[in-house]
Fold each of these.
Amino acid sequence: MNNARQTAVETLEDIFTKGAYSNIALNHNLKSSSLDDLDKSLVTEIVYGTIRYKYTIDKILNKFIKKGIDKVDSRILNILRITIFQLKYLNKIPDFAAVNEAVNLSKRVSYYGSKFVNGVLRSYLRDKNESLNLNYIDNLCYNYSFPKWMVKLFIEQYGNELAEYILKSLNITPKTTVRVNNIKSNYEDTWQKLIDLGYDISDGCICPEAIIINKGRSIESNPLFLNGYITVQDESAMLPAACMDLQENMTIYDMCSAPGGKTTHISELMNNTGKVVAFDVHKNKLSLIRSNAARLGITNIKCVEMDSSKLNLEYISTADRILLDVPCSGLGIIKKKPEIKWNKNINELNSILQIQRNILMNSSRYLKNNGIMIYSTCTLNKEENEGNINWFLKNNKNFILEPIFLGNLENIIYNPNGTMCILPNEYMDGFFIAKLRKQV
């Protein structure tokens, strides 16, 4: 247990102190540990849970630490954080066991640190059920553990009811979804092979290629994944390719392609025909696309290093279809990357708008007449979504919106202008998609 919690604390140090991404830091520390699968699951639960509920945990700790948490050694603070998470949110761990583990772990930092940890945690246990007198917004911040600026943003853009639904949904532990590679297999055969490998699975919500993994061992070590029969991809991220009206032998541009999930999906839907050009500003990330394509048996992808926010005259009027999955604030994928709550701010949301608009405007010039351009983001910020589309249409009269309808699901909002917003739930990330056609 000590070893598992130490790994959790070290991972949080990487994330909170060094700015590491949660998935990368966690995977690195788990791979370098000697923990068994049960302890690895515990570490994962503690790490993501502590990040997810950091606002609430820190509010609690500030109540019992007179000098404030900013004055506490980061290692001691993260020991306290993971323990408050266990005491408040994990019913399966007895209070005395969680406190004892925290005290023992803090002894590795300092003797006085262990006494401090014991005192803070005992104080919390004595009055942990004390009620708080909070206003509406502060209550939402505390209950769902979100920064105030983000809560206000969701309320302003979606109203009270939908905003609370979004906050609640972004705290759900997500299911894993895989996409069947039709180049190497078919849905039925892959389904049966997953069953034979001991997985508890169910059909995807909306995409015909999607299979939801309810229970089972890590997909990355699965022979179906290793041999390219399946790809891990959220179902929301499968939808942009499904909206492109793809036909064999087309020329497709994916303007912000790494790590290649949507790029390879496009190739699969085109049955590995035509040409898919994968652009990305980061040369090192293009290797991820090549690696994914090789694993999936895809040969029609060409990788090009290019900054899509700058116009390249070489590609004017050359694409049948274009995918713009632009860099965004990521507010729709917080359940997978909860650190987004703490490493974003309203200024960053505003500063990214110009980059998105540059990419949108440049890419529109690469499209042939009557071609289709899909604009998508994994954010719920309407300024990056509807706001950018309205701006683009105002400045480009030769483009029209084509309505998107993919089926009736409770978490999908079909906007009157034809764009689509996917609200997060257990199976799907928050997402936005707009379908633009270039008129002759």
Amino acid sequence: MLAACAGAGALPLAQTFGSWLDPYRGTAQKLIAAAQENDFAWQRLAELTDTYGARPAWSENLTRAVVWAVDTMKADGLENVHTERVMVPRWVRGAESAEIVDPPRHPIAMLGLGGTVATPPGGIESEVVVVSNFEDLRAKRAQVPGRIVLFDVAYTTYAETMSYRTGGARLAAEYGAAAVLVRSVGPIGLRTPHTGSVNYMPGQPQIPAAAVAAEDANRIVRLTNAGRRVRVRLVTSGRMEGEAASSNVIGEIVGRERPDEVVLVGGHLDSWDVGTGASDDGAGCVVTWEALRLMKKLGIRPRRTVRLVLWTNEEHGMNGAAAYGLKYGHAAANHVLAIESDSGVFAPASLGFSGSVAGRMVMAQIATLLAPLGLQDIGAGGGGPDIDPIAQAGNVPALAYLGDASRLFLIHHTAADTVERIAPEELSKAAAALAAITYVAADMPDRIPR
């Protein structure tokens, strides 16, 4: 039945709608109403972030949050609740600072990048070489040896700009730089530096790397453009301390007819060690979790199993996603749809889908149920880092809830990522949309076409 609808690609989309969707309208609207009747989702997010704070994958905070998630899923009535052990890298930030020492002494708002190596105990003090991109670095390579390179790269999108954060230290080290500073990857905020991973290559030089607030980067650039030599002292003491044990957390509603077929939903429970990881990605954990909680509350058991996964170590290695892909790779073909929320919930939000044309057409039909939420249009950009391994293994259609990027990346990976930045109604709206889509995908007669 759905295949016939999906095959009508030459027709206007409205003409492809069949009666197959009608039985789901009432239940979908009940889920949407239940998600928005109060601020339950926001209160749960506040409980997570207030009680367990920042949650690096190796930390005691995350270990405690995992126990809380297991206990709370069980209290919600979810089934097969358990953890799956994942070994993760243990990186400790330690003490760090940066300051302009000449011209006038001035502290710099900074955060060492995740995984950075340490400076010598007294720090590194050197003149700054400002570069605007990798090509500019290559052009100025003769000025680089022994100096601190500042990548002053204007923020465009996260995908485009983050390469300077992850890869800038590698290239600068090849040219003899003593350290790297990276203009924070995000819109200009209130002197809020953004952390995130730096990637080194085995067998190559490793130099300290830190993010600096956009305002401090601007000041250094203005001074150098005026012909002034700017000296900076940088202190980092980040260090790797081997591996630590962490866990993915899993809970399910087992399907009534096809329990081996799975609609996968989730977000990552870990965060960076600044802020409380409210948007990245406590919100994603809560709004996907709500799909299962609301189904249990309303007594809904779909045909297929709905599986919630709260992944670990998304921020610094993707070990949780890799572990899930390895454990469940043999059943990847039985994953009917994978849904991730790791892009915030800020309005105006949208939905992104990755999959076949036929799958997109069916998903567009399902999304008409979200018209009361203003989310009936499905764009590109489905998937996400935690569901990608299983999606690639099984050619699984993927959906993402996409919050407004300009609002997300203003606080992303910063101390400002707290629950106060998230409006309860935006969280409830995301939960409503994902609950309705999850339910229909798990209960519809045929699978979403691959």
Amino acid sequence: MALDTAHTLGFVQKTWDGDILPTLTEYVRIPAKSPMFDPEWKAHGHLDRAVSLIEQWSRARAIEGLRVEVVRLADRTPLIFMEVPGRGDDTVVLYGHCDKQPEMVGWAEGLGPWTPVRRGDRLYGRGAGDDGYAAFAAVTAIQALQTQGVPHARCIVLIEACEESGSYDLPHYVEALASRIGTPSLVVCLDSGCSDYDHLWTTTSLRGIVNGVLTVEVLSEGVHSGAASGIVPSSFRIARSLLSRIEDERTGEVVLRNLHADIPRERIEQARAVSSLLAKRISEFPFLPGMRPMHDEPLAALMAGTWKPALSITGAAGLPTPTDGGNVLRPKTALKLSMRLPPTVKASDAAKRMKETLEADPPYGARVTFHAESPGDGWDAPATAPWLAQAMRRASEAYFGQPAMSQGTGGSIPFMAMLGARYPQAQFMITGVLGPDSNAHGPNEYIHVPTGVRVTACVASVLADHANDSAERGLAAR
């Protein structure tokens, strides 16, 4: 039976309005911070509350054969494992996560990380689009097919609770559940972004990441700056000089050449095809008056944000607030470094190179340490099969009225690199709802609700086409 576009959209819209949005609103209220940001997550119980909310909602769906289980390995964050039997021998894995980034400052009046606010098409609050909606969208897409009697393959839905910390728990679950997961022929990830709200966007590459803390210590305790400055070197100045070993502070270029990679010609051409569409998005970052981006040309900006390394300082310690900063030469400075890596650079090698570079020959004999936190590899998609390219195009035209678009993404989804290595024959549909100024990880984060609806319907459409392709391959093999 063929998928009815109008019926699918109507069912998905009704489910979002009546079931998903009320539950997603409650999910926003839960401060389910990832374990990196809440080491006492088990005692606080917020991650378990988020998991329980999704589990209970999913169990209530009228889906034939649906099994929902919360799997718990010792000393690891929980995983939601769902299984829906289907036609044929193929398996689809649908992925999302339910842990969140921390609060961040700068929320507009009336908004807050744990305060869900609906304004027009936007639902504000931490985690709604990154990535709370994913479980609801995945399950609803499957249910939309079953309401019409449209076949689908066996579906596995994996919702982890550690993604924002680098997914370090997930490999253990994938290994423990390997026999139950099987070998997927299609992976659908709902944790990526879109460069506008007018197309279905799919991701062709993801950057890797090395997060780590650089600490410079010069004294056992703080001392009067009048007596010590000019004699005791500033820990901040030493830290600043060490950063110059890995980044040119004038241009932002990463100077460690083995953190760079050759960019495939195919990715350059794909970027060129969409760069004009992305020019508007670059201008939509909340630059202060008079500020300008590092690259004025859209293609150069797109490649810099998807295939080149870049360093950000995302946190600091040892620095009092300006109000509390007395005339004291501080004993140490600690900086949180976030190094985004090209998709094909191995993160563990990059972390080792950064550590060697930062810790070598410390100025003045200062105590310098760099501690990397779970480096995450990037990912470069395999060639897209013709059936999947056609399926994504059809889905986008049906529910967005525009063809599907592809792009590299500057963020990281460690799960993709792991799955790509484990299942090299699988096809990948990496998509999401994080569009212009949705500001994931920052203040005023929101999900664009109509895009959530359309992406859900698109996933249903691709699942239907996947089942058709599987059936055709089965007939051809006879």
